[in-house]
Specification:
This protein has 2 helices and no strands. By secondary structure, it is an all-alpha fold.
């Protein structure tokens, strides 16, 4: 039996995560607003939670930048290593094709006979 899902009904993981985060945020704010607290207490709690959220966000940005920088550096190292190995492989291929590859004794390498 065919699946009832169509291409339009599929939800991307990114959109799902965004919806969950937004729903959690809206639910948290609604919970604070409807909590049985005085206005001053509620505002103080909101301010405190806002400061905490900003600190977490700032820390996450710093960590993300550090990770991105590390990845960029590692990618650069890998590219340099790949270029070095490619250059070596090209030189070996050129030597083989030009027939200049020799054995340790100084003679040309002979092809094995079948």
């Amino acid at each position: 039996m065919e699946s009832l899902k169509t291409e339009k009904s599929k939800i991307s993981p990114r959109r799902l995560l965004g919806g969950l985060l937004l729903g959690g945020l809206v639910g948290g704010v609604a919970g604070l607003l409807f909590a049985p607290k005085a206005g001053k207490e509620l505002r103080a709690d909101l301010k405190e939670k806002g400061i905490e959220a900003k600190k977490i966000c700032d820390d996450s940005v710093v960590k993300a930048k550090t990770i991105i920088d590390d990845v960029k550096n590692r990618a650069g190292e890998l590219i340099k290593e790949a270029e070095r190995q490619l250059s070596e492989a090209r030189m070996k291929a050129r030597d083989i094709l030009s027939g200049e590859e020799t054995t340790l004794s100084g003679h040309r390498k002979e092809e094995p006979r079948a």
